[in-house]
Amino acid sequence: MNDLLRNNLAVESYREFIPKAQAMNSPAVSDSLVAKAIDFIKNNANKQIQVSDVVNYVSVSRRELERRFKKSPNRSIHREIKLTKVQLISKILLETSDNISEIAAKLGFANVAHIARYFKDIEGISPLEYRRKNLCARS
User: Fold this and answer.
1) What number does CATH give the domain 3-138?
2) How far is Cα 97 from Cα 78, in angstroms, rounded to an integer?
């Protein structure tokens, strides 16, 4: 099996978590262009996307989209991507037994250290600590 096909299968394996992640912390946005961008981000959270991908999708300049994001939801496009991806990672951590390296590979992270830094920037703790803390709280 070639690498592209293997990666596509891995990405699709987490597709079921996207609707659950979308339901979490969805900001109410009155700007239809920003709402379209946020929908794109949420629908592609299981893939490696960049700000340029979002800008291309909504067909507006990066500067204009960044300006609109600053008004509502009052954060950058990059931050929105990060928040959305961390929401997805959180759901996967709590609803599967996949280890961190499997999650990292399936979501396109280079390695465990990269996903851990990415996650810790938003949550303040490592993915493993998050899983332990939240699974213990559920018991």
Assistant:
1) 1.10.10.60
2) 28
What tokens does 37 get?
């961008």
Q: Please state the domain extents for the chain.
A: 3-138
Instruction: Look at residue 43 and tell me whether its pLDDT is greater than 90.
Output: yes
Give CA–CA dist 47/117, Å, rounded.
18
Using alpha carbons only, what angle is made at residue 55 by residues 51 and 58, rounded to the nearest 5 degrees?
Answer: 140
CB 46 within 8 A of CB 15: yes
For the residues of 54-80, what is the DSSP string, one character each? HHHHHTS-HHHHHHHHHHTTSS-HHHH
86-116 pLDDT tens trace: 999 999 999 999 999 999 999 999 999 999 9
